[in-house]
Amino acid sequence: MSKRAVLEVIALDVEDAVAAQAGGADRLELVTDMAADGLTPPVGTFARIRASVDIALRVMLRLSDGFAAADVEPLVRVAGELREAGAEEFVLGFLDGDGGVDLAAVERVVGVLDGCRWTFHRAIDRAADRDTLRKQLDGLPGLDAYLTAGSAAGVDAGLPTLLHEAELAGEPGYEQRLLVGGGLRLDHVPRLMAAGIDAFHIGGAARPGGWERGVSAAAVAEWRGVLDGA
């Protein structure tokens, strides 16, 4: 039997989370402030969502717009608070001014996660050298996925990169799962799945009414049906 593809949905609040689970999401990415591309939600928001759904939750660790870590210590503190509240999976990623991975910042934050699983987010799509970034992060505890569109411009532009990286699966720096998101559409799915990609991330696609409206269980269910039927 083939393994079910992972469907991750962005959730901002309890209502989003409940609708996403009802539609068939496997996992949620918890964020606040999508105007800044998603920041760390309050610990209380995490706790309320955790009490409302029983699927996996990955919590964003990012306190300001952009991909620089800035002062990493406040982020370390909030990561610790989230761990104390029961968070077990995270999303993070920092670049330096030259577009390389800020390894010191990543290692500092990962060091307080106690081996929890985490995704390196779309900072990889702004990196000066994706391959170098992957190899520098290789072996960090808990890293199991890269959220990527293959390009800062989205999946349409990044599709060749995604297909190439799928071919490298299992090689050093490429052991982690490709979690595709960023301008992802349903018509992209068959080609991506044919290449062996089995994890997909949606935000706006789960909200036909736009970001000012909540997640639609029906929209999530449509994605679930396509992934299960592909």
TrEMBL record:
One Pfam family linked to the record: CutC
Signal peptide interval: none
SUPFAM superfamilies, sorted: CutC-like
Domain of life: Bacteria
UniProt record similarity statement: Belongs to the CutC family.
Matching PANTHER family: COPPER HOMEOSTASIS PROTEIN CUTC, COPPER HOMEOSTASIS PROTEIN CUTC HOMOLOG
Protein name: Copper homeostasis protein cutC homolog
Species: Streptomyces cellulosae
